[in-house]
């Protein structure tokens, strides 16, 4: 059985407060995009996991895909399977690729072995794997609050727009992103700001991580400025970085070049 886990971008990211448990509450919009991995499995005598495409750091047993499988295997006594992942979504990019892989694995196992788990039950299991994993169960534009695990519907629709994603060879750790961030609620809440025309988002929808991440990595700020200079109606960093994206009204014909080595993706939005 095969499936194609897709990436997401964050539209706005407001760090609203630090919690007593050390985590931070935030508000953001997760929006799915058509940059996809390929994930498949077949039943096998023993459970195996292999990956092609982009290199995944770390030990295989720590991969969220295997953790998703083991979670359901323990509950439903699933058979052994041979898993193959072709990785196309860059890691450490703020695009949620690892979370998508885990969530799609849960959905694929649920369908293949007829486990009859509801979307709500799948979201609960996905949330145990990571804060944003649950988003990929329904995989629709979503306003996320809490630590990124409390979902509300949103009517945002970017179909007809085009997006450029630029992922430089820059690593931004989550600890680094949060390190210099001072929680503060925006004057206009994200759920209200998002209702304004996209041409106005530049002045009212922000990624709070950019304040500190751009100081440490000025090349990211340069990429954002370049996207605006090339005609983007809105540009921002996705999540804690380091992908910078730009939304365009017209089909993309530019050859985007940066001062640092980068992966560049041009996609249509649905």
Question: In short, what is this structure?
Answer:
This protein is α+β, with helices and mostly antiparallel strands. The protein has helices spanning 64-76, 97-112, 119-127, 135-138, 174-179, 190-193, 210-216, 218-229; strands at residues 2-3, 6-18, 24-36, 38-43, 48-53, 81-87, 142-145, 150-153, 162-168, 234-237, 244-248, 262-268.
Describe the structure.
The mean pLDDT is 94. The protein folds into two domains: 2-153, Ribosomal Protein S5, domain 2, CATH 3.30.230; 162-268, GHMP kinase, C-terminal domain (Alpha-Beta Plaits). The longest helix is centred in the middle third of the chain and has 16 residues, at 97-112. Helices cover 26% and strands 29% of the residues. It is globular. A four-stranded mixed sheet has the order 1-4-6-5. Strands 2-3-7-8 form a four-stranded antiparallel sheet, with helices on one face. A four-stranded antiparallel sheet has the order 10-11-9-12, with helices on one face. The chain contains eight helices and twelve strands. The protein is α+β, with helices and mostly antiparallel strands and 270 residues long. The chain has helices at 64-76, 97-112, 119-127, 135-138, 174-179, 190-193, 210-216, 218-229, and strands at residues 2-3, 6-18, 24-36, 38-43, 48-53, 81-87, 142-145, 150-153, 162-168, 234-237, 244-248, 262-268.
């Amino acid at each position: 059985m095969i499936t194609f886990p897709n990436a997401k971008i964050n539209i706005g990211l407001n760090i609203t407060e630090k919690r007593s448990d050390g985590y931070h509450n935030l508000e953001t919009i997760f929006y799915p995009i058509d940059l996809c991995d390929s994930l498949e499995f077949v039943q096998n005598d023993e459970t195996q996991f292999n990956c092609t495409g982009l290199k995944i750091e770390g030990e295989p047993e720590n991969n969220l895909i295997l953790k998703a499988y083991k979670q359901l295997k323990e509950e439903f006594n699933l058979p052994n399977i041979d898993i193959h992942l072709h990785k196309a979504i860059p890691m450490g990019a703020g695009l949620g690729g690892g979370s998508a892989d885990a969530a799609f694995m849960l959905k694929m196992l649920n369908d293949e072995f007829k486990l009859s788990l509801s979307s709500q039950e799948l979201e609960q299991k996905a949330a145990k794997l990571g804060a944003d994993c649950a988003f990929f169960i329904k995989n629709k534009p979503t306003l996320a609050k809490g630590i990124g695990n409390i979902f509300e519907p949103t009517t945002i629709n970017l179909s007809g727009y085009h997006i450029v994603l630029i992922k430089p060879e820059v690593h931004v750790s989550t600890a680094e992103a949060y390190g210099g961030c001072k929680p503060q609620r925006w004057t206009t809440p994200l759920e209200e700001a998002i209702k304004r025309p996209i041409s106005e988002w530049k002045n009212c929808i922000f990624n709070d991580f950019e304040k500190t991440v751009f100081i440490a990595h000025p090349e990211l700020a340069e990429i954002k400025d370049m996207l605006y200079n090339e005609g983007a109606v809105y540009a921002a960093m996705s999540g804690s970085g380091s992908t910078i994206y730009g939304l365009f009204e017209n089909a993309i014909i530019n050859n985007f070049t940066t001062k640092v080595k980068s992966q560049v993706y041009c996609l249509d939005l649905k």
